């Protein structure tokens, strides 16, 4: 707060002159664990007092519960496929008023320009967006992303007002192995919050990792992992989003061992807009926690004060003088469904569009792929061909070897349920194209392509014939990125994501409609019911998930961290 | 930690190669509230793991409790009258390994040079000293201190490694009244920790104060005050030092209402070396808290993790990988008397001298008082003379008016138990001398003078005859400041405090001996048993404590904030 803001707000608080009052609420105090039936006074965007106040503009809560706005401690906005303003429109009605975002995806596409762009897109929204700077761009050296970010690229962003620290340090082998560029990042951010990401890391390796700086973890998948990390001083972010591994067991463990919860927070990481709409967001995690026996006020604190403390946010996460007037009103303390949300002191209208800052040109027209010739999609097969085999309902894959159908020249042809998969470098027109074989998606008579392709976000395309695959690639090049379903040379569905090839700036209802049309078109190609073909496709090029992936450089064995072949 | 430190410590943690192991301790984990009997591995000054470790250098704890080193959340080093190295020697054996210091006193004497000096004196000591920058120098405009510190003077110090934020904002009227220079300080430090100091502030004024930035308070004197401030989001620092108002009632309230304790910490503020020696330091507050029903692990957390969180200290306050190896070993979980203290991984020898960095010349020879003539000590009396009346065992005074003894010229003479009091400006040789009358100290046949005279630290002198008062002033000018007791023109006791007139760099045992000799000499002048005349004298010039004070400008009515007369 600058001196002029203070000069306005201090007299309002001192003289009891609110601009808005929420009357007769059961106000939850996260510092004292109390519920007090009283009024909350607001001046502009700030709470100035709790108690006996009145004013011309009042909202009568008639005794409903009033809690601080909820905080998502770790989320990737880009995974929603909409720009921050649209994301805000979906999140706010669910009670999430602050998010800690890691703009890892846009940074892989557009580097520091991508970071600047998303910071500008997040400005002055009713959703309070803070940023952790992506620590691992690119995620591996086995692919070509749009940018490489070192400590010197990241540190200047600490001067931006909403930048908090260093984002999830996924590359734990580099930490534990003391890679010089990683140590430079960690020491540069040592006094700031540093997010961890260390699935199953334990014992001495975990000790080394914690010592190196990361102080949160959102990858716990069982209670003993959670407890070891908690003992080490990590803030544990319990995640329910697209992933939710082991959450119930972890909650049960916390309850049965009566662990302190003040170093436990909640996050979604990634969660699809449709699911947020239908199921909820952070409030859904609170409700899950309460249903397993966490005390309601503790669960609310885990979604408010705890993440604020973990990330050093001074003015959010509580209802008290000086705090931002972000609050949620609800009727049932055991199932939190916000009936009204206040963001910066204003009631949120779930139907109102939220105006977005202009999308910077630097992140439009981000698809820079060299032309792909039909020959580049040819894959010479041998008798013992490595294949990516998908696993129902999971993102992991299996590496299998077997003979595959070939044409008269020995090139693989996509038959017998097998599809061709290709990854086309799309940032610097290098002409790199990786080609492989995938079993389990089962596209018939067409192709599906995407520029959302973690983490380098090259073009990934799957199909059973090369002409449709080429057409799908061309469709994405033409529209600046997104998702395309092509059949018989015709575009059956297209979701344009013109912002870095990752996000849409169209109205959010349009995006949701197109997402549904896209899935319908994919299903019409006969894709396997046991997977979401669009999500699965987006992860087939990420060479950190076992067992096998395809990058623009070739087919990669994640177990041995080496290429099976390079194209 | 820089990249090179990380490069040394990460492999030690990863490979389980400690340089020192504490074997078989009951290790207290403040994150999980557990006590686990195990080993702690240390490399250099850092904990690298808890569990199964061994090494050539081991200490066998034989099952004793091992807790993190204790933190004093708010203390003024200068009040100990010794330099930081000597203070460390007294504190470490009591288990206090980190202090949050407000160098308010030296700043009033020597401004930014004083701040730089104490920062340099605190470097590389086994006691971890962090600083909050003094926000109110001078404390009032009704006196002359050695310096005036504005926001522009303070902000550059944020670049110093151990500087955390803005020190206790005592001048709450300026905050609530929006004084421009105060708003400039508060906004400049808004994103940093800001200490409060707001005794009895409540309701809307307290709301305005909290909104303005201060987020701690160590001045609560009853439970309802504590609870209101806690509700407002303040960290409450429960103080037992020279002052300990209402502590037992507050602890009882916390226990009976089962309030969360994670926003409650402990501090001493000021505590005399003798009392620390005899009674303990932060461990004494823990023991008091436990004796009133606070759970031992909660009490330990209030002295470790809680203040670390409140002040954003990342690597102290817990026993976990990456934390500084500051720990205390003790036998009884209900009465914590450290039997061994580890500071930066080294066992503390209570008898060893701790080498100090050199005292900068800038804070020596700080007594710059113009010569005081006998005429300047004359006080013309009238029939209804305002008098400072002391109150037994307290620092507050009462303002009374009555006729006083006079000589033939109508000047006050110190008889009938009344003493003369004078305050001599000693920073810029301005020649300002305030003269007043005090009842209740009862010096007979001599004078006592001090350069420790809150907060401006001018020379304050009390006596029953002008020659001895002048001699006492001269004694302090000659030795660079301190305390002097003079009788019959002879110096009966002298404590030299050559560092800013506030601290001694002599061996701590010498200082303690001289402190005792000083009190003995004061008592030999017949001083009132119901006060410590030296402490009382040090506060008689502080124009913020009710009801009446003497500054170098004249006699000041604290109730009306105006001068009764000016000299």
Can you describe this structure?
The structure is a homodimer of 567-residue chains. With 567 residues, chain A is α/β, with parallel strands linked by helices. Chain A contains 16 helices and 27 strands. In chain A, strands 1, 2, 3, 4, 5, 14, 15 and 16 form an 8-stranded mixed β-sheet that branches. Chain A has an 8-stranded mixed β-sheet with strand order 18-17-20-19-22-21-23-24, sandwiched between helices. Chain A has a 5-stranded parallel β-sheet with strand order 6-7-8-9-10, covered by helices on one side. The longest helix of chain A is centred in the N-terminal third of the chain and has 18 residues, at 104-121. Chain A is globular, with a radius of gyration of 25 Å. The N and C termini of chain A lie far apart (55 Å). Chains A and B meet through helix 1, strand 3, helix 6, helix 7 and helix 8 of A and helix 1, strand 3, helix 6, helix 7 and helix 8 of B.
